[in-house]
Write a structure and sequence with these properties.
The chain is mainly α. The longest helix is centred in the first third of the chain and has 23 residues. The radius of gyration is 25 Å and the shape is globular. The mean pLDDT is 93.
């Protein structure tokens, strides 16, 4: 399909990219939530020699920590530094989207504005805890793997062009695996659909070479990770970490409550429902192409949307995970816009299209309000350049910063014992303290810990004996219900020295603070 529109200039394309830059710049001072604080301080530890899964453990795949490691090393392990990395990622994603659609839409300007329906839609409504999460970042390599495999469909069978595109698709899928293993289901199912399509269309029995290229591109980048597991004797731990433990979280350890699903769906609907009317038009237009083969990219987007929702529902159903289906929905809406413009120019069904336009604009009211709120908050809070402005801005988007700063003020006060600490609670405390972490098992989300993880925590508390221990009320309640042994050990090694905010600091019983608190 050839785009109509001027080839020279391309001013609109650059204007849209500048809009994406501006939208990302607004997010630059956005405060971390607990997840991002955890990623940042763990990546900072990796920058100084700590080994993932050995000195620091999480059940996530390494991609998010490697992404934070690169962004933090280049721009700083703080909010602005990490969000600069996100800005560059978002602009690259937007430019790739424009290039991908250039030859797939009838109107060139539609391809130019396409990023507003994906990256732009996300940035308009993204909350602090949505930014630089896996589901935000993984959309880019997912797009690359779908795009490359779809582009291979247009190349002659067994040609060099097809081989290169399939290899690139496999490589991009490997990046997806580095971010989150379950999301590789999306490209795998799309690849299978393509291979079946080629076998039927080209009347070839074997698609062995194409399969080998896809799987080779997928597997080869994973070999360094396998070598790392072997060198650190982690194969058994990794199988448990990646395969055994995550399903147990949602099935028995911490099944997601219905309220979590409700809140996630509500966020998705309020933020992105304005794309649905156009996406329906785009999908119907593709299905109506009875005499021409359907664009495999559209098939890939439908698979992404459907399988993406499935992967969200089998996970913890945290709100940020509901971002995953946005990109295919937005791109289908772009195809719908392209079809609507063509139908409007042909003077057909203008009333219906006008009504659709009114509905889309009305539904886009919520994202517009959210975008304006971010800009307004930034302007009112001195662009976060003053201390008061920074604190007011943080309180607006992540209220726990106030409690975390209060807790950190005590542990970093003059005269406190230097050294590593452990936080059973929000990682913002660990991050803001600028102290090294003492245990490989972080204390975030204790409701997801099983007997093995509580055992790790106790063993490492005995071995490391961090100079201070923070325990919030929620973690304390979880330990009372699920791990009395951990509470007993804490009472043996530590005494409570300073209640603050939603928890308390504990110091080693041999410390001056404990001696001062004794009656």
């Amino acid at each position: 399909m050839t785009s109509r529109g001027p080839r020279a200039g391309g001013a609109l394309r650059w204007i849209v990219l500048l809009v994406i830059v501006a939208a990302a710049l607004v997010q630059l001072p956005m405060p971390f939530w607990g997840d991002q604080a955890l990623f940042a301080y763990a990546a900072h530890g990796m920058r100084h020699g700590d080994r993932l899964y050995v000195d620091f453990w999480d059940y996530k795949q390494p991609g998010i920590y490697l992404w934070y490691l690169v962004s933090g090393s280049l721009f700083g392990f703080h909010e602005a530094g990490i969000h600069i990395g996100e800005l560059i990622w978002a602009v690259a994603f937007a430019a790739a989207t424009q290039r991908m659609l250039r030859d797939r839409v009838q109107h060139r300007w539609v391809a130019d504005v396409a990023p507003l329906f994906t990256v732009g839609a996300f940035l308009a409504t993204a909350r602090a805890w949505d930014l630089t999460q896996i589901e935000d970042l993984v959309a880019f390599p997912l797009l690359l793997t779908i795009w490359s495999a779809a582009a291979a469909d247009a190349a002659p069978p067994h040609s060099r062009a097809r081989a290169l595109r399939l290899l690139l698709s496999g490589l991009a899928a490997a990046v997806v695996v580095y971010f989150k293993l379950v999301y590789v289901l999306i490209p795998l199912i799309f690849w299978l659909a393509l291979l079946v399509r080629w076998r039927r269309r080209e009347h070839e029995r074997a698609t062995t070479s194409e399969s080998a290229l896809l799987l080779g591109g997928l597997v080869v980048p994973l070999l360094p990770l396998l070598a790392y597991f072997l060198a650190e004797h982690l194969l058994g731990t990794m199988w448990w970490t990646y395969v055994t433990y995550p399903p147990r979280i949602v099935s028995s350890i911490d099944p997601p409550p219905f309220s979590r699903l409700r809140d996630g769906v509500e966020y998705f609907v309020k933020s992105f429902v304005w794309l649905v009317p156009l996406a329906v038009i785009g999908l119907r237009a593709q299905l109506a192409r009875a005499r021409r083969p359907r664009d495999p990219l559209v098939v890939g987007l439908v698979i992404w949307f459907v399988v993406g929702w499935g992967t969200v529902l089998i996970q913890n159903q945290w709100g940020y995970q509901f971002v995953l289906p946005l990109t295919p929905l937005g791109l289908l809406a772009v195809f719908g816009l392209d079809h609507a413009v063509g139908a409007w120019n042909a003077q057909r069904t203008r009333r219906v299209l006008a009504l659709v336009g009114v509905v889309v604009v009305a539904l886009a009211g919520y994202p517009a309000v959210q975008a304006v709120h971010k800009v307004k908050a930034l302007a009112q809070d001195d662009l976060t350049l003053s201390a008061n402005g920074r604190h007011a801005y943080d309180a607006d988007f992540e209220p726990y910063y106030r409690d975390a700063r209060e807790a950190v003020a005590w542990v970093n006060a003059p005269g406190r014992t230097p050294g590593a600490i452990h936080v059973e609670g929000n990682p913002l405390i660990q991050y803001l303290s600028n102290r090294p972490y003492a245990l490989r098992e972080h204390g975030w989300a204790p409701e997801q810990s099983d007997a093995r993880l509580w055992g790790w925590t106790r063993a490492e508390l005995r071995a490391a004996q961090p100079v201070y221990l923070w325990v919030d009320d929620f973690s304390l309640d979880i330990m009372r219900k699920r791990s009395h042994e951990t509470l007993t050990l804490i009472s043996q090694l530590y005494c409570k020295v300073h209640p603050v905010a939603d928890g308390a600091w504990y110091a080693l019983r041999t410390s001056d603070e404990c001696r001062e608190t004794r009656p």
